[in-house]
Amino acid sequence: MNVNYNNNNNNNNNNNNNNNNNNNNNNNNNNNNNNNNNNNNNNNNNNNNNNNNNNNNNNNNNNNNNNNNNNNNNNNNNNNNNNNNNIDNNNNNNINNIDNNKNNNNNNIINNNKNFILNFIGKTFANSKSK
User: Fold this and answer.
1) What is this structure's pTM?
2) pLDDT one-digit tens code per residue, 10-48
3) Which of 105, 78, 101, 98 is nearest to 90 (CA)?
């Protein structure tokens, strides 16, 4: 009788130990799974952060490029305007010069004609006196 109790007790103890071991193993597995999940989450978060950073960098680069393009366009427009203004000024100067030259030529012709007439009158008058 005693031997049977002892055997039963031993069996029960063994069963309890096995159950405890199983529980421990399960707990360990659960912990490992949790750790793995946490690691995966951390990795995902890191990847997301990296992606966000890359996107921000790309956006900044695009903005910089756009700004540079706008500046270049503005510079080109300014240069074109300056060139057009220079052309207009040159054209106006040329027209003014042509007008001035015409006026000078006309004045010279008038003065030459006046001088010719005065000389002619002077000579005629001198000739008539000498007769």
Assistant:
1) 0.62
2) 888 899 999 999 999 999 999 999 999 999 999 999 999
3) 98
